[in-house]
Write a structure and sequence with these properties.
- The structure is a single chain.
- By secondary structure, this protein is α/β, with parallel strands linked by helices.
- It has helices spanning 24-30, 40-63, 74-79, 81-89, 109-127, 145-151, 189-193, 211-227, 238-241, 247-258, 268-278, and strands at 12-19, 69-72, 93-96, 133-134, 156-157, 167-171, 174-180, 231-236, 263-265.
- Strands 1, 2, 3, 8 and 9 form a five-stranded parallel β-sheet that branches. A four-stranded mixed β-sheet has the order 4-5-7-6, sandwiched between helices.
- It is globular, with a radius of gyration of 18 Å.
- The protein starts with 11 loop residues before the first strand and ends in a 7-residue tail after the last helix.
Length: 285
Amino acid sequence: MNGIKWPEGKKSAVMFTFDVDGDTTWENGNRGLPNGEKYIKSKSIGQYGPKRCVDRILDKLNEYNVKATFYVPGLSAERYPEVIKRIAAAGHEIGHHGYAHERFAGCTVEEQIEIIEKTQKIFKELIGHEVTGFRTPSGDWSIETPKLLCERGFRYSSSMRGDDRPYRTIIDGEETDFIEIPTKWEVDDYVAMAYNMYPAEPAGQDRISCYRCVEDNFLREFKGHHKYGLCISFMSHPQVIGSPGRIKILDHLLAEVTKHDDVWVATGSEIADWYRANHLKGEVK
């Protein structure tokens, strides 16, 4: 299995990411229920993220001197502007995550353009610039999405699952400078630990995962990626990883990753820009 030559002779790359969904996902889930707009308890789960957990995560990242990437829906930025400003002021990257955490796979081209541009306008007004990284909300995008993003100045995405190394996205049959940094469900805290009774999360219920087992899974994935010289993108959500108990998972991950001198810990933009500049089209297979 081919690894990649990383900056300064590093053996592998690690990207810590956090999806600041807030209550957008729970609002979307409530809409499918009779009187769903009245279910405020589920919304409060999402509100807990920006209200309490983001600052706990920022403190932990600062403790280990790690810069991360925070993917933010435009609606979350509108609802919690001071939180997003604190993230940016701490030197972390802000990335695009739709407007209301829409499933891009179900949107027309015109709807996708409206979502992309609306949220970019919010970021420009809030943090002074548009963003260049994207993570598709709700796990999928349409066939047109990469082209729409590339045409609007985005430099990379961290949305797909098809590799454990960055790669150039194929658009209209050609390799492009739009870089994909894949992530995996295996390192997504939401699928491991998010929980609610109604609407049911997970749909089949019966899951409040053992924190020690989840941490062990995450550490095993890091060690495997490091062994083979790959790039791992940890995908977390403040409302999940940022609780007083689960923040220890992040603490132990940061401690393990940063103790290795041969690991490059970087933001999405840093990884994408370095990969684009150092790997020619067709070079990595």
